[in-house]
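User: two proteins, same treatment. go.

Assistant:
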Amino acid sequence: MLDKKGIAKRIAQELRNGWYVNLGIGIPTLVANYVPENINVVFQSENGILGMGPFPYDGEEDADMINAGKQTITALPGAVIFDSATSFAMIRGKHIQLTVLGAMEVSQNGDIANWKIPGKMVKGMGGAMDLVASADNIIVAMMHTNKRGISKLLKACTLPITGVKCVKKVVTNLAVLDITPDGFKLVERAPGVTVAEIQEATEGKLIVEGEIPEMVLE
C-alpha cells in the first residue's frame, strides 16, 4: 500500500498543462513536490498566493511564506501574493480547474465530510465550503480506513457534510476510485494490494469491472 507521499505522487499524474490547482491541507500539499517534468501548472493557496512551489529545504524556510495549512512554502518565479478576498474571488469565480482535498469520509455518491468531528476541537471549515461549491473537478486524497481500521469510503457520510455530490475521484493508500452514479468504481490498485483487500476496506458499493491494473508510480 502507499504512504502519504505515494498518494501525492499518484494524484500528480492527474495534473494537466495550464491548469490552476488548489491544494488543501494535509496530504494534498505534498502534490506540489511531484509535478511531472512535462507538466506546467500553477498552484493556488486560498490564503493568497498564486504560483506556490514545493516545500523549502531545511534551513531555507521563510516564516512569512506559508500555505493555508500554515506550512512554509516556496514561491516560483512570477508568483503573485494577494488578499483573501481576491483569492476567494478566483475560487468562487470558477477559475480553478482542480481542487485536491483531504477528507474524513467520502460517500459513494460523492459527498465529502472533511471539517468537523463532533465533540472534538477543530480549526473550522476554512475555505473547504467555497472550494467544494465552486470547483468542477475535485480529487480527494485520504487513507482508505481510519486508525481503527474502519472504512472511510461509505454508503453515506456520518460526519457533518462539507459538500454534496461534488467529489469526482478518490486516491487512497489502497486504490484509485472514480465516483459514478452507481458507486465507487475501482480504477487502479496500489502496489501489492489485492482487489479483495480493497473490497474488505470499502463500506460503500464498490464496482469492479475486469482486470484492475496496479498503479505505476514514476
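Protein 2:
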Amino acid sequence: MNTGDVRLLVGLGNPGSKYTNTRHNVGFMSLERYAKKKSVEFKERKKVFSYLAEIGVGSDSLKLLMPKTFMNESGLAIRAAMDWFGLEANQLLVVVDDMDLPLGQLRIRIKGGSGGHNGLKSTIQHLGTQNFCRLRIGIGAPSNFPEERKAKTISHVLGAFNSKEVSIIDQVLNEVSLGVDLIREVGFEKASNYINSYKSEC
C-alpha cells in the first residue's frame, strides 16, 4: 500500500448500546477514539447503511465508517460506501477484533482470508476480493482447548472487557490512532513494521 492510499477507514462492530464496549466492538471503539482525536463527529448516512465521519476535504479526505448492518452483514455497508464514494479495495482499511491474537497485540496485513471472522467474511463476499488492508486487534481467546473455546466463543466476543482489560484496550486504541496516521504518512510497509511489533505495557 502506497503513501496516502487509505481513503476509507472502517471499524467493524454491532450497533446499539447492548454491544457498547464489548470485545467484538473494538473496531467501533477504535474509530470513535480516532474521531475524537481528530475532532469530527459521526452522522447517520442511510445511503451507506452506516454512521459516517470525515476528516479533511477533497481528494485527501479520510472517511470513517461504522456499519449499522450488524457484524455478519458488514460487507453490505462497505460495498455501498465504496460504490458511493468511487473507491477501490486498495483504499480500504478495516479495523477488526481478532480472537487468535493475545489481548494488547496488533497485526496489520494488506490481504488475506477472513480467519473465521464473520465481518471479514461478509466484506470479502461483497467486495469479491481478499485484497484489502485489515488491522486486527487482539482480544484473546476464552480457552486454549478447541472444544471449550468453541463453546465459549459467542459469550466471549459479546462480553464486556473486565477492569484489567479496559486499561490495556485504552492503550491499544491510542496505538491504533497513531497507526492510522502513520500509514497515511509513510505508507503501509514502514507503518506495518511498527504496528506489528507493538505490545501493550500492561
